[in-house]
Design goal:
Belongs to the universal stress protein A family. By secondary structure, the chain is of the alpha/beta class. The chain has 2 domains: about 5-145 and about 300, Rossmann fold (3-Layer(aba) Sandwich), CATH 3.40.50; about 150-250. It has helices at about 15-25, 50-70, 90-100, 125-130, 165-175, 205-215, 215-230, 240-245, 275-280; strands spanning about 5-10, 35-40, 80-90, 105-110, 135-140, 150-155, 180-190, 230-240, 255-260, 285-290, 310. The chain has an 11-stranded mixed sheet, with helices on both faces.
């Protein structure tokens, strides 16, 4: 994923703190710029006509900027950081607007409060982003506290075609960061699981064979080169269901997991499928969802998008 500009969807809550810590971990030892973003609700036709609402808006914006400034002070000196206050009708809309305006390559958000420690619980903002974003979205589990930098990357995919974007991005991430890659083929034995193809003969016992089947021959060759040079490993995780298969895996504190969008996603957009959702619920480390057709490059900035930088 392109991480020259990273958007952190911040809030003065535990969710925002988790997102901030993950953003720092991703940005560390990279030539990256972290943007801490909060969204100021935009006036509509009714509230704009009310003087007391305008006064409240100014007070609110000052408080939001104060929270952003306080958060920015906790960012380590080795990570470049700016704050942004974005006017928008909703938080997801504001984050996506900031992403387009800055040409950012990643949005980071936290887990909804109230869940288990080191687990993911999607809130409204994260759910919206996971069905609309044009760039990868990174999700921090509750209580995430690894200081960074990232040290391991896992690409997790099921026995289905269409994982080219995921595998390509995983290989690029591992190479650019100089960290080991783990390729995990997730196979569930539940016949009701639509991730398993009707033709069971398509399921192989070799992950690299899976890559050639479900991605491309070129990516399979790239992955083979990494495996043969000791920079990547492969694993087939099996179970009666996704949680059972995931239980086979062990994790590092400095690890991230990459998963693909559903085949239902339109090209250039994201849609979190049922299998990826099940993976997300039990993964104890950050998860990054890759949009369909992602080109491994950040989009050009859109100068027409309004963004206020602090």
């Amino acid at each position: 994923m392109t991480t020259a500009h990273i958007i952190v969807g911040y809030s003065a809550t535990s969710t925002g703190q988790d997102a901030l810590r993950l953003g720092i971990a991703i940005a560390r030892e990279r030539d990256a710029h972290l943007y801490l973003v909060m969204v100021a609700p935009e006036d509509d036709a009714f509230t704009a006509a009310q003087p007391f609402d305008q006064s409240y808006g100014r007070i609110r914006d000052r408080q939001l900027q104060t929270w952003l400034d306080e958060a920015a002070m906790t960012v380590p000196d080795d990570v470049r950081c700016s704050t942004l206050l974005v006017p928008a009708q909703s938080a997801p809309e504001g984050l996506l607007a900031a992403t387009r305006r800055l040409g950012a390559g990643l949005i980071v958000t936290g887990s909804r409060p109230g869940g288990l420690l080191r687990r993911h619980r999607l809130g409204t903002m994260a759910s919206h982003l996971l069905h609309a974003s044009h760039v990868p979205v990174a999700l921090a589990p509750a209580g995430y506290d690894h200081p960074g930098p990232l040290g391991h990357v896992t690409a997790m995919f099921g026995p289905r075609r269409g994982v080219t974007d995921l595998i390509g991005e995983a290989i690029v991430t591992a190479r650019n960061r100089g960290i080991p890659l783990r390729l995990v083929s997730l196979v569930t034995l539940d016949v009701a699981d639509k991730a398993v193809p009707d033709d069971q003969s398509e399921i192989t016992t070799d992950v690299l064979d899976d890559l050639e089947t479900y991605a491309t021959k070129r990516l399979a060759e790239d992955a083979t080169e990494l495996v043969e040079s000791g920079r990547a490993t492969t694993h087939i995780a099996t179970g009666r269901d996704v949680p059972g298969a995931m239980a086979e895996l062990t994790w590092h504190d400095d690890e991230i997991v990459l998963v693909a969008s559903s085949r239902l996603a339109s090209r250039g957009r994201m849609f979190l499928g049922s299998t990826a959702t099940k993976m997300l619920r039990v993964a104890p480390v950050p998860v990054i969802v890759i949009p369909s057709g992602y080109s491994f490059h950040a989009p050009a900035p859109d100068p027409t998008e309004p963004v206020t930088e602090g």
